[in-house]
Amino acid sequence: MNSFLARLFLFLTATTLLQPLAFAETSVWKVQKDEATVYVGGTIHVLRPSDYPLPVEFEHAFQTSQIITFETDIRQMNSPKLAHKMLMRLSYSDERTIKSEVSPETYALLSKYATASGISLNFMRKAKPGMLMSALMLAELRKIGVSQQGIDLFFLNRTEKEGKLADFLETPEEQIEFLADMGVGNEEAFYQNMLRDFKNTQKLFATMIKHWRTGNSEDLDLAVNQVMKAQSPKIFQSILVDRNNNWLPVIENYFETSEIEFVLVGAAHLIGEEGLIYQLKQKGYQVSKL
Predict the structure, then answer these.
(1) pLDDT above 50: residue 7
(2) Taking the complete model, does pTM exceed 0.70, yes or no?
(3) What is the domain partition of the chain in residue ranges?
């Protein structure tokens, strides 16, 4: 998998060919220290309606836990105040526009692609790469039937409905920052890569689906994390390694509580030597897959 789509899928993906009501290899781990237990699950952020019900490993961890921890409270993204803040942060605040930062040839290709996706490039002329990329990827995902809430929102809504406690590892503002500077200063190459890679969306999507669903952490790491690490080391450091390092102490603190927690984060954060699961093992915790 190329580095562009790999890093984008961390924010927006994915769907999965789920097989309901059967325990199997999947992306949920049980982590123990003495008598304390924390479940850790790798999430997929958007799904198709046909992808429900989820694997029972997720349901088991959810029902067993009293506190459910998410990357952020994504419901806040719908608030007018945060939406305005996001618009401002993901837009050029000076004289720059999409058109001013790329060659005429690239702009023409972008405009043609955006129009075919039902997006007006003129309307989004002040958008930074992260905003335009997100809009176009969501359009791509709709083409392959992705329209359903993902695992995070599914369990966040249930957490509230069933009276469980919710905890969050980041603020929505922090998540906005990860997109705000992506591609800025390197727009020409960024958009050329994006346009090239979008042609393979469905194939790359299916690769991630397969590895996530079967709990194949090794191949998922090779397909996503290691490619990004080699081709986009700064992005890999900022959106994976740094965040994992920030989250790890929070997760470790859960082992000092009497409650059982279920931590739900993007699947790429759990795999590879920089991933949370490997780090927990290295620290001596007992880790097993459900």
Answers:
(1) no
(2) yes
(3) 3-289
